[in-house]
Amino acid sequence: MNTNQTARDNAGLNVASLLLCCPDQVGIIAALANFFAERDLSISRYAEYTDDGQFFSRFEWVLNERWDNEASFSQEFSRLADTYSATFDVRFMNRRQSIGLFVSKQAHALIEILNKVEANYFPNLDIGFIVGNDQTMRRIADRHGVPFFFIATDGDALEYEKRQMDIIHRYKPDYLGLARYMKVLSANFIDNAGCPIVNIHHSFLPSFVGAKPYQMAYDRGVKLIGATSHFVTADLDQGPIIEQDVARVIAGASVTDMIKMGRDIEQQVFARAMLKVLEHKAIVYKNRTIIFD
């Protein structure tokens, strides 16, 4: 990487990001602007969105020595937030983030994330561990120097989820990514993971339920193959959507061709969704997301 590129990348990490949600009301924008102006801080990026009687916004500013970390900022900002009944989340982008990845037999989404971490696609990110229920994924983890834990999932769910949870609590990741992990997470697992969980899966119109969705899509002559990445909730594949995309199926495409297309879309959508989350650009409201550019 050249010196100018390194400087630009480092500058991008020397910022803080504030996500805020509150009832829409007169004076909120002025109050937020005054908070930063009174502390001699210049807002470098700002976006807002109003819907359902709610005000959503994202601020970026260049870090200085006023606050040591997110906790010190939150303590000072909380008084203003309470005045407007606001919820907020702040991220200092110079702090390293970590994720844990879960995977089954399909490696495409996992490899996409690992390669993009090596290429510095994500901001200040470490991959803490990979959990897999197929031993063949170990060689991929070893190649990238990431700790791999094989945990079979063909037995009692309470037992294998407990072993998985022990790993999560040991590494304490900021996020979990399900890189085509083909097991349903229990509500207890989701509640106790201690961090948001991001999933990726294929999408068709119409949708197909069963072991061979691509065969069913082929049999129906589906013209669009898509992928959806979303936050995980206890309702299977019904969590707030972060990112989606589609590709058109050309005439003469076989089932194998469609599977390859689907995997390409899945890995791209998964990587873009993880980037939005790691760049602190996603607010969850009710069961949907507000995604900032």
Brief account:
This protein has helices spanning 3-13, 28-37, 70-83, 108-118, 138-143, 157-171, 187-192, 213-220, 255-278, and strands at 15-23, 43-51, 54-62, 87-92, 97-103, 125-132, 148-150, 175-178, 197-204, 224-231, 241-248, 282-285, 288-291.
- Main β sheet profile: 7 strands, mixed
Q: How many structural domains?
A: 2
SS field, number of helical segments: 9
Strand percentage: 25-35%
CATH class designation of the largest domain: Alpha Beta
Provide the descriptors you would attach to this structure in a database record.
four-stranded antiparallel β-sheet; Rossmann fold; seven-stranded mixed β-sheet; alpha/beta; 2 domains; Alpha-Beta Plaits; globular; 9 helices; 293 residues
Report on this model:
This protein has a seven-stranded mixed beta sheet with strand order 7-6-5-8-9-10-11, with helices on both faces. The chain has two domains: 3-92, ACT domain (Alpha-Beta Plaits); 97-291, Formyl transferase, N-terminal domain (Rossmann fold). It is globular, with a radius of gyration of 21 Å. It is built from nine helices and 13 strands. The protein is an alpha/beta fold. 27% of the residues are buried. Residues 1-11 have low confidence and may be disordered. Helix content is 36%, strand content 30%.
Give the helices and strands, then pairings.
Blueprint: H1 3-13, E1 15-23, H2 28-37, E2 43-51, E3 54-62, H3 70-83, E4 87-92, E5 97-103, H4 108-118, E6 125-132, H5 138-143, E7 148-150, H6 157-171, E8 175-178, H7 187-192, E9 197-204, H8 213-220, E10 224-231, E11 241-248, H9 255-278, E12 282-285, E13 288-291
Parallel strand pairs: 5-6, 5-8, 6-7, 8-9
Antiparallel strand pairs: 1-3, 1-4, 2-3, 9-10, 10-11, 12-13
